[in-house]
Design goal:
The structure is a single chain. The chain is α/β, with parallel strands linked by helices. It has 4 domains: about 130 residues, Rossmann fold (3-Layer(aba) Sandwich); about 170 residues, P-loop containing nucleotide triphosphate hydrolases (Rossmann fold); about 70 residues, Orthogonal Bundle (Helicase, Ruva Protein, domain 3); about 45 residues, Orthogonal Bundle (Arc Repressor Mutant, subunit A), CATH 1.10.10. Helix 12 packs across helix 14, helix 16 packs across helix 17 and helix 17 packs across helix 18. About 30% of the residues are buried.
């Protein structure tokens, strides 16, 4: 991040006229000087504070040059020429310059204008730096909890917030708040003004997921009637949040690795690559090292994602955070549904602390919302907090003896209930994929090939 006093004077040399004046002018202003010419193969230096275009004798070229510099709108550009002409000055200002001065007659005016521009730029950078520090200080204000387990993770995350290029892997059980932490890292950091783009890698089949990530050209496949940018392009300059990254198909794992290493992507059906500047935050609720050992996840991609690891603790390890979260959700849903906000009685507190919350914060949130809506106004009915869906009439823990498909379906439903209705978590606990779980719930398990884990 640029410090408040770091204002660089960039001299763009269209002409060498008066070149001996620029270094003395920079010393007088107390700013470092950097020179660049359009003929140089490298682009102009980034992060210039004030730009001076030295155009003595080549003033007509300024209008074409300024758009090519692609400078941020808040960077002032002052043009210096050798022709004193109001019409020329107006033309150059209309092209995007802040002012025009003709030397040698306008030396004092140029000096005063540059001094004012440097002062304004320093003030602007100071305000931006202060705003950035404030954003970092409040990055985690939406993450509720004071437990040592949570504080340890947030302190580790706070050290990463200022570094917008660090790749981060967030781990933890389902419902622990991985997306919330990813958003805090983005909006508290230097990429906050750019997009935050999220993608659940388990939500789409591999073919559609590839198109979502990398985009496609018109005619790349049957339904590609128009070109479409991928999410990497959409997230340019910002953060890509890849949730359930362990569900990426093997071929997409390789393409993701190349995109991260080369910082470029190629749309489906395209021949050219596009450079991207995107920070990756990935999340998973599975044991990725175990997935690597089982050859379900690429080892090289794991190490590429596993630069900074932040492991969110489950709710059962966060002690009284359960009470703080419950009070937060009570305020939220009381206001949302316009009902009296209930108080947490000692009995309700005991129930909240005694429950294991296998679905973590998501389960607690749903339980509080249900209790607010179904309890008598202004109260919390204990029975609503940990209510489970009723089993079908006549159903026992597992039907036996019974056809294999019925036994498998009952086991899948029981695990889904235990996981608070979260299919990803139920599949993880059963050691199967979400698609396999879905087939079991539909009674198709016995039709699968024996021993097929998918």
């Amino acid at each position: 991040m640029t410090a408040p006093g770091d204002v660089t004077l960039l001299v763009v040399r269209l002409s060498d006229s008066f070149s001996d004046f620029w270094a003395a002018l920079a010393r007088e202003l107390g700013v470092p000087l950097v020179a660049w010419a359009p003929a140089e193969p490298a682009p102009p230096p980034a992060h210039a504070g004030v730009v001076l275009v030295a155009a003595g004798g080549r003033e007509p070229e300024v209008a074409t040059l300024l758009p090519q510099l692609a400078l941020p709108r808040d960077v002032p550009v002052i043009v210096v020429g050798s022709t004193a002409s109001h019409r020329l000055a107006a033309h150059i200002v209309a092209a995007g310059a802040a002012d025009y001065f003709a030397l040698p007659d306008d030396r004092d005016g140029l000096r005063d204008a540059l001094a004012a521009a440097v002062q304004r730029r320093r003030a602007s950078l100071g305000r931006a730096a202060l705003a950035q520090l404030e954003a970092q200080a409040h990055a985690f204000r939406d993450i509720v909890g004071e437990s040592p387990a949570l504080k340890a993770v947030l302190e580790r995350a706070a050290r990463v917030v200022p570094h917008g290029d660090a790749t981060i892997l967030i781990t933890g059980e389902t419902g622990t708040g991985k997306e919330l932490l990813a958003r805090a890292l983005h909006y508290g950091g230097p990429r906050a003004a750019a997009p935050f783009v999220e993608l659940n890698c388990a939500a789409l089949p591999a073919a559609l997921l590839e198109s979502e990530l990398f985009g496609h050209e018109r005619g790349a496949f049957t339904d590609a009637k128009t070109a479409k940018p991928g999410l990497f392009e959409v997230a340019q300059g910002g953060t890509m949040f890849l949730d359930e990254v362990d569900h990426l198909a093997p071929e997409l794992q390789g393409k993701l690795l190349r995109a991260l290493d080369q910082k470029s992507v190629r749309r489906l059906g395209a021949t050219a690559t596009r450079t991207v500047d995107v920070r990756i935050v990935a999340a998973t609720n599975t044991d990725l090292p175990a997935a690597v050992q089982a050859s379900r996840f690429r080892e090289d991609l794991f190490y590429r994602l596993n630069v900074i690891t932040l492991e969110l603790p489950p709710l059962r390890q966060r002690g009284d955070d359960v009470i703080q979260l419950a009070e937060f959700f009570l305020r939220k849903f009381g206001a949302q549904y316009k009902v009296p906000q209930p108080k947490l009685t000692p009995e309700v507190r005991r129930v909240l602390l005694a429950h294991a919350w296998p679905g973590n914060i998501r389960e607690l949130r749903n339980a509080i919302e249900r209790a607010v809506l179904l309890s008598p106004p202004g109260t919390i009915a204990v029975a609503e907090l940990t209510r489970r869906p009723s089993a079908p009439a006549g159903a026992g823990p597992l039907p036996f003896p019974a056809p294999l498909a019925d036994i498998q379906r009952a086991a899948a439903r029981a695990m889904l209930d235990t996981a608070g209705g979260n299919r990803s978590e139920a599949a993880r606990r059963l050691g199967i994929s979400r698609s396999r779980l879905q087939r079991l719930l539909e009674g198709q398990g016995a039709a699968d090939e024996e021993g097929d884990p998918n």
